[in-house]
TrEMBL record:
This is D-amino-acid oxidase. The keyword Oxidoreductase applies. Its EC number is 1.4.3.3. Keywords: FAD, Flavoprotein, Oxidoreductase. It is an enzyme of class 1 (oxidoreductase).
């Protein structure tokens, strides 16, 4: 019998399962979707606390996650790299709260510069799954309607993202729709952010072979169809910011629903359930720190409370 069932195989479920496994737990993952079909597989995915409020817990999880990804670049973990970033600042802003996690953060006139982890999620999720299975873990594909359906373990980690709304009745969860376009990389190596561009939010995230262009933050919109007019607008404004994108071949369209939550992520223990959901636009940014927190709750030492 498993010691712990982790419900969910997105970035929060997989990292939690691995963290528990290395601490000696017998872990089974139960998931409705293959890791490659989760919201996590859609993420751009660059370390940055997108659409998440300042909170000491979040800063601690983000700082740990940054450190762990940085270590993984040294170990040459598949899909992980450190990416220089230029972020356009259109109004006078104080040093952001999250800069404490970023060793080389530097404020220049009109721009912030920093280097942050960037992860190609499809190979990275596949790598995490392979590590989990090589460690003796099993992944069971099925959707559950209630926690009582999970009777094979003493403890359950609820890493179901937006799916937690149905399982727990949590009314604070809501989707933030994100659409993005993947184009062939014309030779870009620096990430660019311009959140307050007059035509809409801009992010340009180069990867090994392509570039993710974004994006949208549509609060409360659960629609997963690709909107061609949105894609055209994203290409137009990202090309205005980075003219080398002109004419780049479109390879793919992405859409996903960020699991946002009023009050921030819920990471806390409730009886035999350890909740770990609601990471909004920052699941990759907070994953390893969250996984360590989950492991502390499993070991009975967790201190955090949900917001
Ligand atoms: C366009 C876009 C760009 C993004 N860019 C970034 C970025 O640059 N950096 C960053 O940090 N984050 C980014 N994000 C956010 C990030 O994708 C999410 O925060 C993250 O994926 C949430 O992970 P999760 O594991 O909580 O949820 P998910 O990936 O949604 O996984 C949930 C899991 O739970 C399972 N599940 C749900 N309900 C049930 C059930 N009833 N029974 C069984 N299984 C169930 C699902 O099958 C799935 O396996 C982006 C998101 C989008 C949409």
């Amino acid at each position: 019998m498993a010691d712990v069932i982790v419900l969910g195989a997105g970035i929060i479920g997989l990292t939690s399962a691995l963290e528990l496994q290395v601490r000696g737990a017998e872990v089974t993952i139960v998931t409705a979707d293959d890791p490659a079909d989760t919201v996590s597989a859609v993420a751009a995915a660059v370390w940055y606390p997108t659409r998440i409020d300042a909170d000491p817990r979040v800063l601690a999880w983000g700082t740990r996650t940054f450190e762990i990804f940085k270590g993984q670049t040294i170990d040459r973990t598949p899909g992980v790299t450190m990416r220089p970033t230029r972020m356009k600042i259109r109004h006078d802003e104080d040093t952001p709260w999250w800069a404490a996690a970023v060793p080389d953060f530097a404020a220049h006139p009109g721009e912030w510069h920093f280097t942050a982890p960037a992860v190609e999620m499809v190979p990275y999720l596949a790598h995490l799954r392979a590590r989990f299975e090589a460690g003796g873990g099993t992944l069971d594909r099925r959707r559950v309607a209630r926690f009582d359906d999970l009777d094979g373990a003493a403890l359950v980690v609820n890493a179901t993202g937006l799916g937690a709304a149905r399982l727990t009745g949590d009314q604070r969860l809501y989707p933030i729709r994100g659409q993005a376009v993947v184009v062939a990389n014309p030779g870009l190596t620096t990430s660019i952010r311009d959140e307050h561009h007059p035509l809409g939010p801009v992010y340009i995230h180069p990867r090994s072979r392509d570039v993710v262009l974004g994006g949208t933050f549509e609060v409360g919109d659960p629609d997963l169809t690709i909107r061609p007019e949105t894609a055209r607008a994203i290409i137009e404004r990202t090309t205005e910011v980075e003219p080398r994108l002109a004419g780049a071949r479109v390879e793919k369209h992405l859409v996903g629903l960020r699991p946002a939550r009023h009050g921030g992520p819920r990471v806390e223990r409730e009886g035999r359930i350890i909740h770990a959901y609601g990471h909004s636009g920052a699941g990759m940014t907070l994953c390893w720190g969250t996984a360590e927190e989950v492991a502390r709750f499993v070991e009975g030492q967790g201190l955090s409370r949900s917001g």
